[in-house]
Specification:
Blueprint lengths: L2 H14 L1 H10 L12 H11 L4 H13 L9 H6 L8 H6 L2 H6 L4 H16 L12 H8 L7 H11 L11 H10 L8 H8 L6 H11 L8
């Protein structure tokens, strides 16, 4: 999506849904338009590492993870990478890294297995990350959820924040459900069916509406 697309999305959402329109007026320009996107492999590694962790804990472990691949890299590997000292580890490097060393960075056995599976698929070509950009949304979800440790929610965040797909509605996201309940003053948390009905006027920009719902809680997902 281009800046013009996001402006168009804002106009459509304000016209069709006064509740989302109020959130747009309160929070300004959609942050999806300025989200920094790294390489797809990096985005998926970060998503796997961050599962069930606070933002602070995930950042600490990611720094240790990156530091494994350069002996003299400071423990804040992300800061060093941003300064240009080191690119993010390549799939072949992660695939070749011993499990015990990855565990030493603070990763669980399960997450180590997930990272090895992801890396091996990229290395052997069974997962072509570059091809994802040309696939329809459902095909991207099917492709990514075949990787161990990548569930539907992670695939949906990849669609929204990495590929900037405009019309994704993550029904399993508790933050979206909580924001809808709050914004629409519902008595109970909405079911996926009710969320789908409420979101119908947002098409074809449901991703943009969801960003404003997250923003209303000051609770953007880690993918942001």
């Amino acid at each position: 999506m281009t800046p013009a697309d996001y402006a168009k999305a804002g106009r459509l959402l304000r016209r069709r849904d006064p509740v989302i329109g109020d959130l747009i007026r309160r929070h300004g320009a959609c942050g999806l338009a300025i989200t920094r996107r790294g390489e797809p492999f990096q985005a998926l590694v970060r998503a796997i590492v961050s599962q069930q962790l606070s933002v602070k804990a995930a950042a600490t472990i990611l720094g240790r993870f990156e530091a494994l691949f350069v002996p003299d890299l400071p423990s804040d590997g992300a800061a060093a990478r941003r300064s240009g000292r080191r690119p993010f580890p390549r799939p072949a490097e992660v695939s070749a890294m011993a499990a015990d060393r990855l565990r030493g960075a603070g990763l669980s056995r399960m997450k180590v297995a997930f990272l090895h599976d992801l890396s091996a698929r990229v290395v052997d070509g069974s997962l072509n990350l570059r091809a994802l950009r040309a696939m329809p949304d459902d095909a991207v979800i099917d492709t990514l959820t075949a990787v161990k440790g990548v569930g539907r929610w992670t695939a949906e965040m990849f669609l929204m924040f990495q590929l900037q797909r405009p019309d994704v509605l993550p029904l399993g996201d508790l933050g979206i459900a909580r924001a809808i309940r709050q914004a629409y003053r519902l008595r109970t948390r909405p079911t996926p069916e009710r969320m789908t009905r409420l979101a119908e006027p947002w098409r074809p920009y449901r991703s943009v509406a969801c960003w404003y719902l997250w923003a209303s809680l000051d609770n953007l997902p880690p993918a942001a």
